[in-house]
Amino acid sequence: MAELAIPDLSDVLAARRRIAPYLQPTPLYSYPALDALTGTRVFVKHENHQPVGAFKVRGGINLISQLGPDDRRRGVITASTGNHGQSVAYAARVFGVPAVVCVPERANPVKLESMRALGAEVISHGQDFDDAREHCEKLAAERGFRYIHSANEPALIAGVATCTLEILEALPDADVIVVPIGGGSGAAGACIVATAVRASIEVVGVQSAAAPAAHRSWRARALVEDSTVTLAEGLATRTAFELTQRILWERLGDFVLVSDAELTHATRLMIEKTRNLVEPAGAAALAAVLAAPGRFAGRRVAIVCSGGNISPEQLVQLWPAVPAPS
Ligand SMILES: Cc1ncc(COP(=O)(O)O)c(C=O)c1O
Fold first, then answer.
1. What is the mean pLDDT of the chain?
2. Whose CA is nearest to atom 2 of ligand 1?
3. For 11-23, what is the mean pLDDT?
4. What pTM, to 2 d.p., does this model score?
5. Which atom of ligand 1 is closest in space to residue 54's alpha carbon?
């Protein structure tokens, strides 16, 4: 297979023009309570305010808006733990394209319901994202859909990179951008924009230590597999992907791991201090800053709140149940 092209800033600017009719810029807010907790200036990029509650929809709109008539007629298929699938389902609905999303069994019900409401066919298969992905790749070949890989897609990366354009417009003197990593499209997009705008901006990736394939691949400069047992389904992948890793190998400033206990704590704090619904992957950037306050002290730190699609069951696990009033 030919090597995929790495998108550049002009691709991201073109993506912004394509998504502008469909998606509003999201807010970047600071919260004194988070500054006090982290000991630095923290700015939260609220991608949980997207219409599907996650940053991924920027990529879905950018990719599907560019499909030719043949692909649109055949329809698209993808694999997802939920947010990328919602992105594809949302964009497919906007452009009148049939969509199939393969998800792992026991996927987050909030995300499943959203994908179905958007009109996608949802197929449950396997224990985790990579089981669903392999099944999806088989179906794509059998049924002739346009397969949308969740990471090896330049148009998805250019689309999600528009998030970083907005951050740097709102906060031109940002020193650091902290981005959660699963397959790596969000962080790859952040690296493309940050390095083009100002080389001194550091992009820091964060992944769960309970799903460290991308982190290990970044360190080894080779694609390696690992297990995935994290509660943050947005970060849960057993494998790493070629295109996003190539970008991260070249341009990511640092890559840190946080424990699931740290993710849980950060999720609670994000909900309490910002009064937003935040899913565990969406709190990973805060967890990274809380885990190493000295590293970020005195710097202006943008943290990407990548998603807010927490399920009622996950919320109950964050706070012990209180008895209902009698
Ligand atoms: C909420 C959330 N944050 C972060 C990620 C990781 O993004 P990426 O796969 O682009 O690294 C995902 C992926 O689905 C997600 O849903």
1. 97
2. 234
3. 98
4. 0.97
5. 1
